[in-house]
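thread: overnight batch results

M.L. [08:02]
morning all. the overnight job finished for the chain we discussed friday. pasting input first so we're all looking at the same thing
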Amino acid sequence: MITKKIGIIGCGNMGGAILYGALESGVLPKESVYVYDINPVMMEKAKGWGVNLAKDDEEVCSSADIVLLAVKPQNAAEALAQCKKALEGKAMMSIVAGVTVERLQDMIDGATRILRIMPNTPAMVFEGAFALCSDNDFNADELEAAKAIYESIGIVELVPEHLIDAVCGLSGGGPAYAAMFIEAMADGGVKQGLPRATAYRLAAQTCLGTAKMILEKGIHPGELKDMVTSPGGTTIEGCEALEKGGMRAAVNRMHQRRSREVKEIVDQETF
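M.L. [08:03]
and the structure it wrote out:
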């Protein structure tokens, strides 16, 4: 159990998912959490979880040892403007998309230890994929606390900040691409006569089970494909159809384009 006090600025979909998961897993005691969100609906949700409600962002930072910044990129500077003194000498985790550690330091005059994190939406069902910047200045206890929070709702990988845009293209946008593949699989089933609801369930469970075999059993994706494809069988023909349709190349292009666009948007944005 984490003994440090945790503050959360922004309790929307992602901030709320992180908080709820950490509370449900028992990693984070509710009496050690301080929350503020400008949306009264989000504050009411947090109240139902039994955490401490702060009157503003500054109170969150004053009360906590580690602060999670979970606001939209365009709101980051405004949220931090009132917290500069309260954050001095403290640690802050940021899941603000596209905002680098350097820019965050500029917003708070550089007196705070910062850990940048790239989450994804499956955190809402405790199956998130989190990339934590390995080039951070958190101390050992703070980093362990951060890892414990995110491991309670998913997997954690440490990557250097210069690769965060690549993570954004892979696991950040990945749920949308996976959903498209599931939808396409289901469409194929419907075309062959399956009811739509049945097709969606079978396709989604197939992808979920396959992912678990890779993650939990350590089976290489290529090996897993070979396990399913028998010589002269229909599955290898299906794989051939996907290759002829350019699936692998399309996914690669998608990832490169997404990563490049994220970097370009960030470079142009002033926040």
